Amino acid sequence: MDTTVVSRSLQRVIAGMPTSDGAGVKLRRTLGQGQGSRLDPFLMLDEFSSENPGDYIAGFPPHPHRGFETVTYMLDGHMRHEDHLGNVGELKSGGVQWMTAGRGIIHSEMPQQEEGRMRGFQLWINLPAKEKMKPAGYRDIPATDIPVAALDNGGSAKVIAGTLVQEGRSVAGPIQGLSTEPLYFDVHLPEGATFTHAVDEGHNVFLYTYEGGVQIGAAGAQRQLKPQSAGILSPGGLVEVTAEAGGARFLLLAGRPLREPVTQYGPFVMNTVEEIEQAIRDFQQGNFTQAPA
Ligand code: FE
């Protein structure tokens, strides 16, 4: 291995905070708890996980978004997406919904189960200023279209966005070519196994441990990230993560920072206060999803 490559260390931990959203769906939020807990271009990460229908049954009735992308990744359960464009998507275990709100989308995400476990994640990724008002887009990606790479150490990595490159092989995920160049991997490791992956030195990287704890960094300089926490990594060209006792499952996210001002009002994320005021006016006047004629 090239010894000039710096292994990223754990720089900051954001512990999961219980909250609720939509019509009362219980969530655990890490990124997005407040303005200081974003990681450009990532705005928010929520985990929902419950076997109690009372925690999820009310779902997310119709609501707007403008100025960014939402990515829903289901581990267990079944939700139906419907939006003003006429898209209807069945989001099932292992599937991903990648929605680009752009200028505006009005959608609902409603549980299609009355019992059993509902578990997954919603990630918000910012759009650059020049793309915030582009037409809305939506992709429903079933589990069968998301490749899973078997790792030499006995683990596996599901490649949702970007390309996994290791030891001369590459596995491309279904989401490619975005201006934030996201990597989105779901990595499963047995106890003691290490996942190593190169990342762009200029990109921001974080992990979310949804099962088990991990040690992050080069051997001898590791720091622990506990379960259900987001860990923001220092700059560097390499990510090294080792599973603690019992093994671990975590999301690995990397992206190109936009370095633009962020102004958020609920589900509207723009660059300036004026643009937020415009979004509210457009929503109230019915010009939200299309420019006035
Ligand atoms: Fe939504």
Euclidean distance between termini CA atoms: 58 Å
**With helices defined by DSSP (H or I, 4 residues minimum), what is the helix count?**
1
Q: What is the fold named in CATH at topology level?
A: Jelly Rolls
Question: Within the largest sheet, what's the order of strands?
Answer: 1-22-19-24-17-14-13
**Rg computed from alpha carbons, rounded to a whole number of angstroms:** 19 Å
On the 0 to 100 scale, the average pLDDT is 95
DSSP summary, beta strand count: 26
Largest sheet, if any? 7 strands, antiparallel
**Amount of helix:** under 10%
Our count of domains comes out at 1
State the CATH superfamily name. Answer: Jelly Rolls
Quickly describe the structure.
By secondary structure, the protein is mainly beta. It has a single domain (10-255), classed as Sandwich (Jelly Rolls).
Q: What tags apply to this protein structure?
A:
293 residues, mainly beta, Jelly Rolls, 7-stranded antiparallel β-sheet, globular, binds fe (iii) ion
